[in-house]
Amino acid sequence: METLNLYAPVVDIYKSAVKASFDALSTFTDQSEELTGKLLESVPSLPEEGKKFASLYFSESKKGQALLKKLVETNLDIDWMAQEAPQKSLEALEKFNKGVFKEAAVIQKEVKPLVDKVTEQLPKEVKELVEYSEEAVKSGSEKLQENVIQGFETAKKSLADISATGKKASK
Question: DSSP state, 79?
């Protein structure tokens, strides 16, 4: 037990470094958003859709950073010597992925009208290519989500099997 106490200061330093990194990333994102906004305002001929896209990009980027920060903080708070540590880590990772997929769906939904507006003046052949690309991204995203969900189910089953095997062996 005393060995674990020796690691506490190292863990605290690591946690502080992670927090400082996320704070720096947040500050950088805020400053980038502000600068981008000023640059976009200085271009009067820029379509409103371009400005909306930039705003959406930064908004969703901040949400993604918040999700990642929550995952990292959750994993830092896990007692890695406890028997349930792998399960808790898997649960945190699964929650993170669900959040990412939820945000990806929001982004796809919000970007669609912007893309439609921008492409309405393009030739028919180009519109078809854009529609094909949109469908490919949507299909790929759905397939990725299915595979990730299946991977989590397999991992949960494996952890349950390992836990059950460990309990039998300790008896």
Answer: -
